[in-house]
């Protein structure tokens, strides 16, 4: 018989009876109402078994085969993350080529939880090695995708400075690539300065370290160009330089980036996105800084050409000045005044002659007009012996009938005038009588 408040026990997930007072969810547990350990394990197992199988990629760093089981430790290719796998012998027997440490594989994993021991294991359903062809195919697909985005376009390439103030160098620790770049750059330009970041250039941490060094040098105010250099190696060793995150980081850098990875035949994606691809680290040093001997030679040639140009210019200008000085206007500048003076004198004489001629013509015309006026004047008529007869009131007598007998008349002749009295004879016949002698 149960005590008051107790409920009948219920069955758990494995069929074992469970107390009715046990919390139904983890959130309902407390120090006074905890879960039994087996219940937590059962719930974890039920939750984990619902997870689907997934394909993952990694690198084999440990491999132990015991009877029908094989235990593999798989590490991520880009970060310090590892996972233990349990592989049945039948699955390992299906692998086309034997696996060994360092192999790159893809595996289909299903998580499994052991209730009794509380261990989580990753059951491997299938495992396959990743060959060189697979890696190259992946790189080619990524190359095409990034090219379609325009990350490799020539228009995005930034020009390198003519003479960098300071060169940022990202390379392996105490590597031959670093020595080659620094030595060849110093031979070409002894005053060259470097800002070196030594990083891992292969392995799981290389992408993160190279990206961090790139960001640091890109933000450095005195770094004018960045070289990412690494010596040659196998395709697997150069895979970090085809990583998508690193390629995008280089494309976003404000400072020009030079890629000097491997040898001439090696061509990771970093070569495509970089502003300049160098075939080797030595070639990068030659491409980034000029040769001081060649530059001094160019300076000498430029100075010679400049001096020659100046001499030719001075000679040409001297001849021009001599030609100008030999011209009459400069050799005898008063000649210009003499010519103008002669012109003025000639024009003045011409104007005087024209004026005099005009005055004489007009004077003759006035004289002729005056003579004509005189010849037509009444006085001229009077001078020829004619006279003007006027009545007392000043009217000119034109007809005999205009005068009566005894009228007082005024007679105007050339020398003056005198008075007269009219006689009785009138009419036209009286004027034709002969004049009697006095």
Descriptors:
Rossmann fold, OB fold (Dihydrolipoamide Acetyltransferase, E2P), five-stranded parallel beta sheet, five-stranded mixed β-barrel, 438 residues, 13 helices, single chain, 4 domains, alpha/beta, disordered C terminus, 21% strand
Descriptive report:
With 438 residues, the protein is α/β, with parallel strands linked by helices. Helix 4 (176-188) packs parallel to helix 9 (281-288) and helix 5 runs parallel beside helix 7 (244-252). It folds into four domains: 13-48, no CATH class; 51-130, Nucleic acid-binding proteins (OB fold (Dihydrolipoamide Acetyltransferase, E2P), Beta Barrel); 136-290, Succinyl-CoA synthetase domains (Rossmann fold, 3-Layer(aba) Sandwich); 380-427, no CATH class. The chain has helices spanning 37-49, 89-93, 132-149, 176-188, 206-218, 235-238, 244-252, 269-273, 281-288, 292-326, 328-331, 334-376, 378-383; strands spanning 10-11, 17-18, 54-66, 69-75, 82-88, 104-114, 119-129, 167-172, 194-199, 225-230, 257-261, 276-277, 388-391, 408-413, 416-421. The model is unreliable at 1-16 and 430-438 (pLDDT under 50).
Supply the number of structural domains.
Answer: 4
Physical arrangement of strands within the biggest beta sheet: 3-4-5-7-6
What quaternary form is this? Answer: single chain
> What kind of sheet is the major sheet?
5 strands, mixed, barrel
Shape: elongated
In CATH terms, the superfamily of the largest domain is Succinyl-CoA synthetase domains
